[in-house]
């Protein structure tokens, strides 16, 4: 078979990409932000000692930002309560798996609808980030929300994060029933959400009523087109950080395993409806489109929603387009919950 490396690559002239006039002023301001500076990388990525030093520096940055958020969170929570009404957040351990459960004001046990939300990043998003994530997802969707604070690499590489998500999902099924459970994941969390569906299917575990998968990191081999074509245009990540994340997550595991690269998974008609979101500047646009085509080819009900000029982080929760994406996901889930409950 002819490989892509045997073809002459397309040469693109250096050019400036303007901020488009076709998005909101808030989105334009986000797109005008400077690109993160690249991290200093060792020349030999197989040098584990050199990589460990880089990761230690990165981990210190992550720890610093999490501590800062911990001090800020009381004010953030107060703002949300003031704007949207009381929302309780409970922290529980399910067989050692950390889960934050947020319940919006007015939601009682008579409404069993529950969302399992899986955060992305794989090496970032624990503790206070998960707690705030549960709060905001509960507010956005108006339902009880579980955010699984899965253990993360480098100390807990694959399959530990997926195992933790499966444990939380199984507990939700037992408590609420599959007809009342939906899942949502973004980026690395979208990867875990798709892997959860594949593994649940393989193990004979009931499927959720629906899934919302936002800009999934679905192919850790980086074979997709927009890894190349949107490099330097999507400024929502620092160049190189994704490579380090992949290395510590895989820890030597086969990158073509469908549980780590779900775009290569075997889907079938008994999978639940899936909504996928991305943007025209999202470096994972290719992965999202490829997953969508694979779902459709397998007979799965799947919707693809693409926003003008949106990057991997959309517009940083700062623009009307971010609100539109949230309300679109809520309508999608509400319709499937309603159909499942008759």
Characterize the structure shown:
By secondary structure, the chain is an alpha/beta fold. It has a single domain (92-340), classed as 3-Layer(aba) Sandwich (Rossmann fold). The protein has helices at residues 25-31, 48-84, 128-141, 160-176, 188-202, 226-229, 241-250, 285-297, 320-340, and strands at residues 87-94, 97-104, 114-118, 144-149, 181-186, 210-214, 274-279, 302-307. The protein has an 8-stranded mixed beta sheet with strand order 1-2-4-3-5-6-7-8, sandwiched between helices. Helix 2 crosses helix 3 (128-141) and helix 4 packs across helix 5 (188-202). The longest helix is centred in the first third of the chain and has 37 residues, at 48-84. The termini are far apart.
Task: Walk across the major sheet and give the strand order.
Answer: 1-2-4-3-5-6-7-8
Radius of gyration: 20 Å
CATH class, please?
Alpha Beta
Report the total helices.
9
Q: Can you tell me the number of structural domains?
A: 1
SSE string, helix = H, strand = E?
A: HHEEEHEHEHEHHEHEH
Stated plainly, the CATH topology is called Rossmann fold
Proportion of helical residues: 40-55%
Task: Write a concise keyword list for the protein shown above.
9 helices; single chain; Rossmann fold; alpha/beta; 342 residues
């Amino acid at each position: 078979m002819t490989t892509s490396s045997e073809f002459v690559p397309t040469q693109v002239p250096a050019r400036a990409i303007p901020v488009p006039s076709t998005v909101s002023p808030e989105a334009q301001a986000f797109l005008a932000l400077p690109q993160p500076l690249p991290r200093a990388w060792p020349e030999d990525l197989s040098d584990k000692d050199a990589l460990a030093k880089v990761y230690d520096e990165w981990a210190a940055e992550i720890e610093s930002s999490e501590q800062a958020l911990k001090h800020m969170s009381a004010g953030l929570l107060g703002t949300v309560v003031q704007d949207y009404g009381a929302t309780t957040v409970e922290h529980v351990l399910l067989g050692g798996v950390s889960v934050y459960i947020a319940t919006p004001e007015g939601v009682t046990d008579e409404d069993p609808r529950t969302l399992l939300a899986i955060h992305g990043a794989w090496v970032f998003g624990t503790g206070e980030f998960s707690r705030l994530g549960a709060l905001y997802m509960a507010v956005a969707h108006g339902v009880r929300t579980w955010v699984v604070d899965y253990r993360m690499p480098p100390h807990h590489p694959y399959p530990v994060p997926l195992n933790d998500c499966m444990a939380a999902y199984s507990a939700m099924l037992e408590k609420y029933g599959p007809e009342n459970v939906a899942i949502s994941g973004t980026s690395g969390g979208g990867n875990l959400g798709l892997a959860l569906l594949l593994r649940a299917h393989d193990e004979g575990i009931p499927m959720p009523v629906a899934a919302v998968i936002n800009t999934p990191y679905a192919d850790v081999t980086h074979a997709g087109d927009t890894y190349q074509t949107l490099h330097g245009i999507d400024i929502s990540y620092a160049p190189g950080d994704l490579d380090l994340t992949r290395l510590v997550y895989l820890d030597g595991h086969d990158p073509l395993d469908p549980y780590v690269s779900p775009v290569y998974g075997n889907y079938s008609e008994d999978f639940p409806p899936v909504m996928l979101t991305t943007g025209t500047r999202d470096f994972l646009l290719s992965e999202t489109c490829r997953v969508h085509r694979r779902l459709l080819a397998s007979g799965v009900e799947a919707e693809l929603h693409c926003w003008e000029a949106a990057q991997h982080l959309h517009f940083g929760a700062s623009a009307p387009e971010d609100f539109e994406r949230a309300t679109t996901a809520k309508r999608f889930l509400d319709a499937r919950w309603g159909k499942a409950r008759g």
